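This section describes the prediction task in plain terms. A model, or a person checking by hand, is given the sequence of a single protein chain and must write out its three-dimensional structure as a string of tokens. No templates, partner chains or ligands are provided. The sample shown here is typical of the held-out split.
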Amino acid sequence: MSASVGIADTGPEQPKSFAFTDETMEKAKKIIAKYPQGRQQSAVMPLLDLAQRQNGNWLPRAAMDYVADLLEMPRIKAYEVATFYSMYNLKPVGKHFVQVCTTIPCGLVGSDGVVDACKKHLGIGLGETTADGQFTLIEVECLGACVNAPMAQINDDYYEDLTPENTVALLKALAEGKPVKAGSQTGRRGSQATSGPTSLHEFAKAAGVEGQG
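The expected answer:
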């Protein structure tokens, strides 16, 4: 499931114009400079990402037009990129964009419980945003952190080893503006076995992870 909608969709939230701020333009120029003369169109993906970040984590059509014009490429090509990749949000999302993985590895270790905990605590369904604009909840396909499942991506960060209980605690902390720690929510280091090191104990002890799990 993706938060994206069709490129033709319009609504009161669609701005009539868009332009990079001076700060964002400086970042865009550095990205464009990485490509040979005449190949600036190759910068379309990172520039669309810059536009999305500047615009509160969603990408309006005016921003796509702006990026296309900046790169001197047909606007339809920018639309094709933005509608193909689920990393681009084509409608507004909450301040905290919660993407829970429900693919088989996460599903086998309880991702359904994580999704249900999010729904119950936030009072919304999949694809919906809380009334205060703080949270949007969706389910996604594999995010590549299977060994630390169940997991979710919230904005740019991965949160792993989730349970219904620590998921709710995480959501509460985010809502209250408290600092949260990305990665394992159980204290596991890297992709270590949940039972702790099973071999190379001396190396684990030297690394300070002996007995952690």
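For orientation: The two ends are 32 Å apart (CA to CA).
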